[in-house]
Amino acid sequence: MEDTICALATTLGESSINIIRISGSDAISIVSTIFTGKDLKKVSSHTINYGHIKFNDEIIDEVLVSVMRAPKTFTKEDIVEINCHGGYLSAKKIIEILNRLNIRSAYNGEFTKRAFLNGRIDLTKSEAINDIITSKTEQERIVALKQLNGSLFEEIERLRSYIMEIMANIEVNIDYPEYEDELVVTHKLLKDRINKIKEKLTEILKNSENGKILKNGINVLLLGRPNVGKSSILNHLIEENKAIVTKVAGTTRDIVEGSFILNGVVFNLLDTAGIHNTNNIVEKIGIEKSLNLINKADIIILVLNNNECLNEEDKNILEKIKEKKHIIFVNKNDLNKKITIDRDVVYGNTLKKDGLDALKQKLLDVFNLENNEIFNSSYLANDRHITILKKSLDIIMSIEKQISEEVPIDIISIDLKECYEALGEIIGKTYKNDLINEIFSKFCLGK
Ligand SMILES: Nc1nc2c(ncn2[C@@H]2O[C@H](COP(=O)(O)OP(=O)(O)OP(=O)(O)O)[C@@H](O)[C@H]2O)c(=O)[nH]1
Ligand SMILES: [Mg+2]
Predict the structure, then answer these.
(1) 141 part of a folded domain
(2) Do 296 and 191 fall into the same domain?
(3) Rounded CA gap, 395 and 401, in Å?
(4) 384: which of 53, 74, 332, 428 is 20 to 30 A away, CA to CA?
(5) Quick one: 100 and 38 in the same domain?
């Protein structure tokens, strides 16, 4: 944090300009020594100044230099930005000169890390900035922008002060039992407060998961015995003949991927090898792959054949997916019905495209995507946030249990503190250096 740092904020290559960003207490004075225009130490803040970069009597480039004095800058430090000509050489040469003058090259994300450490932005906003830069799809960009402008930070802060108030109250009760006008935190009162925290956490978590869905799409796994029509369903849903369909059982061996969009949300579909007992070594590997994907899928479509009775293999698959979100699609309803199943299923057949709309509707229902509520969520989050939110919710549930067992309040307050600190990790109020380094190392140089 003491060093003055520099980095190219644009990418090297043939372009009209490049921007070199310099941040730190020596930024203005050092750049002044190689700038031929005005004395940068004397110019007003937030001005752009014309001149040349000159080093050892050699003119390096004609430039525009912006001077922004602390604290109203991105890093809250003095910042100088040199706009030089594009191409490979000019910017590279200027950076070499800056390095010689004791301005070190920044690490990835170091500017944003300084903005965070100097209290200019919270951790959720820092992450959003990186997400905007690295967005590859429109959906990813929208989610990142919402996070940047959104209120995740405020929501978490509010929740933390609510928890802090309860903890403070418990402390007072313990330290000053003689204060009669202080609110006494009883098990009943705590139960009520914990319930409120649980409701709020659940709401934020739901929103966060929506954010993840918007960003990454929903992973859908097609599972079922061989020949039931899994590949036919994939081809219809993605409207492309991507997977090979034949009447030979065991046609699909490797995983076939495709995607389609429903109500603006991307569904990543995975077609797999039909699951059954086989000695064929290639099929066996394919089946293993299919089963391994169960955990990674957000939802499973189990395909059954209307024309066959449920057998042991079907029952085995049903058992394997019972804890996961799933939809059962009974295919081939153009053939005689032999199946008996007492569950909620969608009937259809891929030959007449029957039931496929109902299947899509079911997907929308399961994820509540019908009314575009998902796009209106005010706070959206990433995997890191979701993991911490889940951990916090687990702590709250354990506190609920302790309340019902009448565990002494001062013991319960230890867990409450743990929840308070966990939530602080989301916004960077409680942080470990490794975590911060890990987050910012994912940034590009110059950001
Ligand atoms: N009658 C009828 N035949 C169908 C239907 N859907 C698919 N088929 C036929 O069933 C056979 C198998 O279809 P696939 O889509 O390859 O089945 P799969 O589940 O991917 O099979 P594997 O890759 O072997 O696991 C093909 O001959 C399809 O034309 C349907 O709704 N009705
Ligand atoms: Mg197939």
Answers:
(1) no
(2) no
(3) 10
(4) 74
(5) yes
**CA 283 / ligand 1 centre spacing (Å):** 17
* Structural domain harbouring 419: 152-214+382-428
Q: Ligand 1 pocket: which of 222, 223, 227, 231 to mutate (most atoms <8 Å of CB)?
A: 227
Which CATH number fits the domain that encloses residue 21? Answer: 3.30.1360.120
Q: Specify whether 303 is located in the same domain as 250.
A: yes
For strands 5-8 and 104-105, give the pairing. parallel
Q: How far does residue 361's CA lie from ligand 2's centre (Å)?
A: 23
- 309-358: pLDDT as tens digits: 999 889 999 999 999 999 999 999 999 999 999 899 999 999 999 999 99
Q: What is the pLDDT of residues 238-258, one digit of tens each?
A: 999 999 999 988 888 889 999
For ligand 1, whether the C-beta of 424 sits within 6 Å is no
As a residue count, the chain comes to 447
The predicted model scores a pTM of 0.66
Residue reference for tokens 């997916």: 321
> Which residues line ion ligand 2, judged by CB < 5 Å?
230-231, 251-252
Does 68 map to a domain?
yes
Residue nearest to atom 1 of ligand 1 (CA): 332
If one counts the domains in the chain, the total is 3
Question: Domain containing 192 — which CATH number?
Answer: 1.20.120.430
Residues 65 and 161 placed together within one structural domain of the fold: no
What is the spatial distance between Cα 231 and Cα 252, in angstroms, rounded to a whole number? 8
Looking at residue 424, its pLDDT comes to 92
Q: Is 254 in the pocket of ligand 1 (CB under 6 A)?
A: no
Residues 264 and 352 both lie in one domain: yes
Cβ–ligand 1 distance for 286 under 6 Å, the answer: no
Nearest to 420 by CA among 395, 445, 401: 395
Q: How far is the CA of 56 from the centre of ligand 2 (A)?
A: 70
Residue 48 domain-assigned?
yes
pLDDT band at 143 (very low <50, low <70, confident <90, very high): confident
For residue 385, is pLDDT > 80?
Answer: yes
Give yes or no: residues 234 and 188 share one domain.
no
Degrees to nearest 5, angle at CA 131 with 129 and 137: 135
Confidence at residue 388, expressed as pLDDT on a 0 to 100 scale: 92
Q: Is 230 in the pocket of ligand 1 (CB under 6 A)?
A: yes
